[in-house]
Amino acid sequence: MSTALEKEWKRLLAKEEKLLFSADNKKETKLDEKIKEITGKIEEKIPEKLEATLDTAFYKAFLLIFEKGTGVIEKTFKGEELQLEFQVNDFRVDKKATRRSLRKVDAAGKKSKLLNSVVTTAEGIGLGVLGIGVPDIPVFLSMLLKGMYEMTASYGYDYNKKEEQILILRMITAGLADGAEKRKADRMVEEWMGFVPATEGLTFEEEVKRASEALSNAMLMAKFIQGLPVVGAAGGMSNPIVYQKVSQYAALKYKKRYLAAKRQGV
Known about the structure:
This protein is an all-alpha fold. It has twelve helices and no strands. It has one domain. The model is unreliable at 117-134 and 225-236 (pLDDT under 50). The radius of gyration is 19 Å and the shape is globular. It has helices spanning 3-24, 30-45, 49-74, 79-95, 99-105, 107-129, 137-154, 162-176, 179-192, 204-226, 232-236, 238-263. Helix 1 (3-24) runs antiparallel to helix 12 and helix 3 (49-74) crosses helix 10 (204-226).
């Protein structure tokens, strides 16, 4: 087996454990305590129905996009080119797995991640200034799924398959989880990829519900603030933060999935 492949595998596992360990052992600083105090006061002003409204909005947006919106999203990026680029880079790895050839595989995903992050920032702040919060959810979710679709295609997988969409949903849930919940959500991703035995089977709708609740919890306060004219720009900043958390986690997992296949000679 290639030495470069094994080294890259070990680097990835160390990076993965660092990400999960930091979630397990996150310590609060004085700034964190102050922020919590401020956010606590804001949370008291958030209408009780807003969380349920967000859950429902994300849930409906997911189902709508998966059913009718994927074709529209596909028009915003060059999926066939990403697939072709992957095939070329994958061929290079099969010929000779070096650190350079392995890094080439995930280069396309990194480029799209950066571009989409910039767009979500502009979209979030722009709508926030106008005092638009909840109505921008389909727009943001489309950008998030666009990034996930690009990453999926960059590693040679088909995001149109229901099974792949379940993985995307689980990655979104795990990417936004914290503490013990992150370990639990990460295990469900690992189960899907076959790295650990499966213990729980959920329907597609249940997977959508979990991802919707994860996004709702991550953006609840921001969407409340974003709905306030002028100060709403601050709430709009949550879009790129959420996008970065999800894409960072997903990039790590897609690379792990690819490297595992190469180590097994697939």
